[in-house]
Design goal:
five-stranded mixed β-sheet, three-stranded antiparallel β-sheet, alpha+beta, 2 domains, 289 residues, elongated
């Protein structure tokens, strides 16, 4: 049954179709490779001295307490287990996170790919800084998928925040919070730290679904074919071998067969040109600018 037939039969909106398909993909490939880790971190705010509320340039000497991790949460793609950790009340007050940093380091050290929202500008750099300050070496190499950068590149939506994308895709919303939660955490409120960890865990669940929906649009997705022993061609975005071939992709000097993955709906192409060797010799290109 096609998507259109399902929509007509169930009389539901396209958004609900997208959500149903996303949830289906979350359980469709339990033996997925490479190891993709969905990650989200929550940090304490800086505490600083200032003289005014506006047009402030805060110098290093004005910092009273620097930021640190309050909690982290992570899960392996398509795995039901969610891993997380939070600091103690004393650590939150003192901006210390040594008790929780090694556990997230170990997960990243196992990962082939990490997925985070605003990973390049925030999550990955924050984690690296905390690893460095806690005396840990770099984790084993991994590739980064930044869902915020992907959304910004491809979609002119009103907001690229994770909660806005979740609403756009008709997914569950993030847990509603205000800055008061962070304030309670850094003043040593044990119940606030529990709330923060729960908030963090929910973000990871939402991020996983957002990633799966965005996956067909990720043109630079790490090639899953490198991690799977397969006789037939497989989709580089999801590792599925159910591909429909048809049409061509053209470069300045190449012509390649294209396919659509019947699992994640990504589009890809073959590695080898369809242009005969004799014709390739006669191809010319325009000069560079």
């Amino acid at each position: 049954m096609t998507t259109a037939e399902v929509a007509q039969h169930l009389n539901v909106s396209k958004r609900h179709i997208r959500r149903a398909k996303a949830k289906l993909r979350l359980i469709s490939n339990p033996n997925f490779l490479p190891k993709i880790l969905i990650v989200d971190v929550e940090t304490s705010p800086l505490e600083v001295y200032v003289w005014s509320l506006f047009k402030q340039h805060v110098g290093e000497w004005q910092i009273i307490k620097d930021k640190s991790l309050l909690s982290w949460s992570a899960k392996w793609l398509f795995d039901s287990n969610i891993y997380s950790a939070k600091v103690t009340t004393k650590e939150a007050i003192n901006r210390e996170d040594s008790s929780i940093i090694l556990s997230i380091w170990k997960l990243l050290d196992q990962a082939d790919v990490i997925v985070a929202h605003n990973a390049v500008s925030f999550d990955n750099r924050v984690l690296n800084a905390r690893f460095l300050l806690n005396g840990l070496p770099p984790p084993s190499p991994y590739q980064i998928i930044d869902t915020k950068k992907i959304a910004m590149k491809n979609f002119a939506v009103s907001s690229w925040k994770l909660n806005s994308l979740a609403g756009y895709f008709d997914l569950d919303n993030k847990i509603s919070t205000t800055f008061e939660l962070w304030k309670r955490c850094v003043t040593g409120d044990a119940s606030a730290l529990i709330e923060m960890e729960t908030y963090n865990q929910k973000d990871v669940k939402i991020l996983e679904e957002v990633y799966v929906i965005l996956r067909p649009w990720i043109k630079s997705h790490p090639n899953c074919g490198l991690y799977v022993d397969a006789v037939d061609p497989i989709c580089p975005n999801c590792g599925n071998s159910n591909l429909t071939w048809g049409g061509f992709y053209y470069t300045m000097v190449g012509k390649y067969k294209t396919f659509r993955c019947n699992n994640c709906e990504s589009i890809g192409r073959s590695r080898f040109t369809e242009i005969e060797k004799g014709k390739r010799k006669n191809l010319v290109v325009s000069v560079a600018r």
